[in-house]
C-alpha cells in the first residue's frame, strides 16, 4: 500500500459506507423517537428507548469480539448493516399496519443497538488493513471529522422530512442506506497474514473472553487510556444530562440557544478532526490526556460562572475534545495491539468507559437537585482535569511516542488463565 494517498478504492468504500451507516443510524434514532412521542408513549417510552439505544451496544461488544478473526471483519460489518435494515423494515411495516406497541419498538431497538457491538470494533480494526500505517491517524481523523457534519445535517433534514412527509415515509429512506452501506463494505478487499498466535491457539471462548480483559489490564499504554476514558465519560455526563437545565434555569435561555450549542459542539469536533488530518502527532497519549484536561477546565469555569459565552466555549471545547480523544484512542489501539486482538480490546475499553455515562448522568441529576446544575457541571470538570493531571504525573502515557506503540504491539502475547 502506498503511503502517498489516503483515497484509494478500499478506504473510499469504507468512508462512504460509514457515512451512509451514520446517516441511517441518526435517522433511525430521531424518527423512532418522534414515532414514540407522536404515538403518545410518553416520557417512560422515550426514556426506555434512549436507554436501549446505547447501552446494549457497549455491553454486547466484548462478548462478540472474541469470535472475530481479521479476515472476517467486513462480514461482521455487513451483518450489522443488514440486521439493522431488517429491524427498521419490521418497524416500518408495523407502523403502516397501525401496530406499534412500546414492547415491539423497545425490543427492536435493543437488537438494533446490540448489532453495534460487532460493527464498531470491526470498523476500527479494519482501517490498518486498508491504509498505510503512516496514514492511520489521517484516516481516523477524516472519518471522525466528517461523521459530525453528517450527523448534524441528518438531524436537520430528518426534522424537515418528518414535518412534510411523516415518520413512516422518513423511515423508508433508512433501509436503502443500510443496504448501500453493507454493499460498499462487501466490495472492500484486503489481505491478512495467517498468523497462528500461540497464546490464543486452542483456547475456549471463555478463556478468549478473559484474555481480552487481561490484554487491556497488562497493556502499559492502553490501561491508563482506559482509566482516563472512564473518568472523562463519568465527568462529562453531567454536562450532557444537565446542560438543558442549566440553560433554562440559570441562563434563562430556550431551545434555539440549545440548538446553537449542539451546532457549536459539532463544529468543535469537525475542526479538531480536520486539524488532525493535516498534522502528524507523535505523542498520542499527551494529546489524548491534554484534550481532556482542557475540556475539564472549560466545564469548571462554565459551571462556576453562569455566562452564556462560557457555555458556548465549553460546547466547542467538548466537541474538540471528542475528536482529540477518539482519534488518538483509535490510532493507539490500531498501532499497539495485534490485528487479531484489536476488536476485542476496542470493545472492552468502549464498554467500561461508555457505561460511565448513564451512571454519571444519574448521579449528576441527583446531585443537581441538592446543589444546582452549575456546581455539578463544575465538579465534573474538576474530576476530568484532576484525573488527567494525575495520569500525566504517575504514568508514562504522556511520554509515549509513536514508535513505542509498535514496540508494545510486538511484545509476547498474554496467556489466558
From TrEMBL:
It comes from the Bacteria. Pfam families: MFS_1. GO terms for molecular function: transmembrane transporter activity. The chain crosses the membrane at residues 43-64, 76-97, 149-169, 175-196, 217-236, 256-277, 284-301, 307-325, 345-368, 374-394. It is a multi-pass membrane protein. Keywords: Cell membrane, Membrane, Transmembrane, Transmembrane helix, Transport. It is found in: Cell membrane. This is MFS transporter.
Amino acid at each position: 500500500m502506498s503511503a502517498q494517498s489516503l483515497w484509494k478504492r478500499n478506504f473510499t468504500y469504507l468512508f462512504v459506507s460509514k457515512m451512509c451507516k451514520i446517516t441511517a443510524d441518526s435517522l433511525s434514532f430521531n424518527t423512532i423517537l418522534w414515532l414514540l412521542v407522536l404515538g403518545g408513549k410518553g416520557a417512560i417510552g422515550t426514556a426506555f428507548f434512549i436507554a436501549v439505544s446505547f447501552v446494549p451496544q457497549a455491553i454486547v461488544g466484548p462478548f462478540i469480539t472474541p469470535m472475530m478473526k481479521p479476515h472476517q471483519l467486513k462480514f461482521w460489518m455487513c451483518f450489522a448493516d443488514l440486521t439493522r435494515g431488517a429491524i427498521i423494515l419490521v418497524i416500518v411495516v408495523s407502523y403502516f399496519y397501525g401496530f406499534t406497541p412500546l414492547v415491539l419498538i423497545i425490543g427492536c431497538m435493543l437488537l438494533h443497538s446490540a448489532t453495534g457491538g460487532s460493527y464498531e470494533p470491526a470498523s476500527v480494526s479494519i482501517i490498518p488493513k486498508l491504509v498505510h500505517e503512516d496514514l492511520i491517524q489521517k484516516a481516523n481523523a477524516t472519518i471522525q471529522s466528517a461523521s459530525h457534519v453528517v450527523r448534524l445535517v441528518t438531524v436537520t433534514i430528518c426534522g424537515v422530512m418528518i414535518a412534510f412527509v411523516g415518520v413512516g415515509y422518513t423511515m423508508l429512506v433508512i433501509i436503502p442506506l443500510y443496504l448501500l452501506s453493507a454493499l460498499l463494505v462487501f466490495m472492500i478487499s484486503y489481505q491478512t497474514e495467517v498468523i497462528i498466535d500461540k497464546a490464543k491457539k486452542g483456547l475456549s471462548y471463555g478463556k478468549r473472553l478473559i484474555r481480552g480483559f487481561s490484554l487491556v489490564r497488562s497493556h502499559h499504554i492502553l490501561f491508563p487510556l482506559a482509566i482516563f476514558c472512564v473518568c472523562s465519560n463519568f465527568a462529562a455526563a453531567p454536562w450532557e444530562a444537565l446542560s438543558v437545565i442549566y440553560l433554562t434555569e440559570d441562563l434563562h435561555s430556550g431551545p434555539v440557544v440549545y440548538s446553537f450549542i449542539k451546532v457549536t459542539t459539532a463544529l468543535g469536533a469537525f475542526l479538531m478532526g480536520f486539524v488532525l488530518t493535516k498534522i502528524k502527532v507523535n505523542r498520542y497519549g499527551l494529546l489524548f490526556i491534554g484534550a481532556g484536561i482542557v475540556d475539564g477546565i472549560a466545564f469548571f469555569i462554565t459551571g462556576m460562572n453562569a455566562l452564556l459565552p462560557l457555555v458556548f466555549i465549553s460546547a466547542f471545547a467538548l466537541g474538540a475534545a471528542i475528536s482529540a480523544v477518539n482519534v488518538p484512542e483509535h490510532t493507539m489501539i490500531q498501532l499497539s495491539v495485534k490485528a487479531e486482538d484489536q476488536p476485542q480490546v476496542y470493545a472492552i475499553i468502549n464498554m467500561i468507559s461508555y457505561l460511565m455515562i448513564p451512571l454519571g448522568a444519574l448521579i449528576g441529576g441527583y446531585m443537581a437537585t441538592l446543589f444546582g446544575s452549575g456546581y455539578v457541571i463544575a465538579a465534573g470538570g474538576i474530576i476530568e482535569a484532576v484525573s488527567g493531571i494525575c495520569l500525566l504525573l504517575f504514568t508514562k502515557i504522556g511520554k509515549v511516542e509513536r514508535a513505542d506503540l509498535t514496540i508494545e504491539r510486538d511484545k509476547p502475547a498474554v496467556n489466558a488463565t
